[in-house]
Each structure stands twice: as C-alpha cells, then as structure tokens.
Amino acid sequence: MANRAYLINHSQIAAIAAENSEESCLLGANYQVPILWIALFEPSDLTFVSVSCMNDNGDELIEKIPTLFAPTTKAKSTYAARSVALARSLGTENAHHISEWETFLSSNLPASMLQIDLAELWMMYENQTDLELDIREWLLGVKNPSGHEWENLCSQANLNDPEVRRYGLRGFPWQSKVQWT
Questions:
Q1: 66 Ramachandran zone, left/alpha/beta (phi>0; psi -120 to 50)
Q2: Separation CA 7–CA 108 (nearest Å)
C-alpha cells in the first residue's frame, strides 16, 4: 500500500474519508503532507473522521483519524494571509512551485469544503496519536515559518531533497487536470 495524503475538495458538511470519495481527491502526496496544503488550515480546522480499518487479526475496527477540514473560502483566505511570509521563507528557488500552487487554488476548487485526508499516513505511525501531535506542530510551523516547528514541517516535506521538493511543497495531480511535473 502506498502511504499517501490527499487534498480533497467536496461538498459534504462533515469530513469524509478519501476511500469514500475518490473523485474528490484532487492532489496526492507520498509519505508526506505538502507545506502549501498545511498553509490552508488553522489549528481550529483539525478534526477527526471515522475510518474502517482492520487490525492484525483481520477484525474490522472504526478508528478516529485526524484530518484538516474547512470551508474552501476560509482555507483560501487563510493561505492568502500567509502567502507572503511563506514565499519569503521558502525562497526564490521555490517560486515556480508556489506560482503553480496559487494558479491551482484560483481555478481548481469548485466544491465548498477542503480537506486533507491523512488515513494512509496515520497507518504508518506506531503510536497513532503522534500524527495528531505532528499536525499541530506543522500548523504552528506554517503560521510562523521559523523555529523548530517550521524545521520539522520542512523536514517531513523533504525540502532538502531537490528531486522531491516540489511534491513536499504542493503534491502531484490525482484527479485534478493540472499539468505539474
């Protein structure tokens, strides 16, 4: 199983699991949560979604998995308020990826709600409550792009690797029609 995060745009009034709405998964990211996705959300947008999982014995369990979920207009506004500081912190070498991202935001989010599905990443954690702690730290890092929280966010996004940096910034197309490389 690939361990992906998905950026989902849908019209449900509550957070959903990506497995129940494949067509709403616009972007994906392998083994990471892109920084520019995190920049769409505030700590108050952290919520939980019920996901059906199997334990080691093959028994089905319902798990509460953290997700970031907000109205699309609020998420865009949150990003806009952070965009200048983020661009400055991410540097000119990432300006092209940021520009692609901002073009995506302006024309590819038709539905009323925006969400990051983290179920597959959650499954990678030995202690599943640690993902929630990491998300809270990443939200602090993107709010103030300096210090330990920012460094942790950049590390999980693999910004130090030029070959995969673009994915750690904005992910890759899943159901969307963007032409990112």
A1: beta
A2: 11
C-alpha neighbours within 13 Å on the C-beta side of residue 145: 17
Count of residues in the chain: 181
Cβ-Cβ contacts under 8 Å for 70 (sequence gap 6 or more): 40, 41, 42, 45, 78, 113, 114, 115
- pLDDT (tens digit per residue) in 61-82: 888 999 999 999 999 999 999 9
Query: pLDDT of 4-45, one tens digit each?
Result: 999 999 999 999 887 777 788 999 999 999 999 999 999 999
Q: Please compute Rg for the chain using Cα positions.
A: 15
Task: Output the pLDDT for position 33.
Answer: 95
Q: Which residues of 15-28 are buried (b: 16+ CB within 10 A; e: fewer)?
A: bbbbeebeebbbbb
Give the residue from 82, 108, 113, 91 showing the smallest Cα distance to 171: 108
Claim: this prediction has a pTM higher than 0.85: yes
Q: Which of 97, 65, 72 is nearest to 83 (CA)?
A: 97
Per-residue CA distances from 115 to 29, 68, 90, 169 (Å): 14, 5, 23, 16
